[in-house]
Amino acid sequence: MGKHEEPPPTYGPTALATPANFVTVARILATPVFVLLIATQESSWLTFAIGFAIGMSDFVDGWLARRQGATRSGAFLDPLADKVLVLGGMFALVANGQFHWVPVAIIAVRELVISAYRSQVGRRGISVPATKMAKWKTFVQLWAIGFGVIPPIAESAHWVATATLWIAVLMTVQTGVAYLAGARRIAKAQLGKDV
Q1: Which CATH number among 1.10.150.20, 1.20.58.1610, 2.60.200.20, 1.20.120.1760 corresponds to the domain 19-189?
Q2: 193 confidence band (pLDDT: 50, 70, 90)
Q3: What is the tally of helices (H) and strands (E) in the chain?
């Protein structure tokens, strides 16, 4: 009996109008609602529920992309949606006094620097895949935001959100350094020089 063959992907790498991309764009469009709720009111279960639903949509679009075919547009939109959600949520928590600006600024600078670098090396045909640690980093960043809006934690155990935020900072810096090192290794292997 032959090996079970996977069906061909529904969408090719250049496709734009895919279910996965629809979910990703919906996540980007819903994020301002979440950010506005954080910035304009105290912690609430409604705010947490909306943020949780937006965050979970990341798993949905990833699952759809794996089943139906990954696209270049999705590879661009998905990390963009993550950054919009993370940075929007964190700066809103700075605005309402839940987060100190220093750890959030460190995360923001790392995300912007790595995004710019990824774009630069991408133009040279170098693609550096996301590591498992980078995915965990985003997960911890989102939970730092979540802990900042869950009423019992935000009101009585704020240290939980603060500790999670600093763990996110450490993971964010570590994965940024690892990304730069990985990109340099791939560039040397492909181009014979550093980037």
Answers
A1: 1.20.120.1760
A2: low
A3: 7, 0
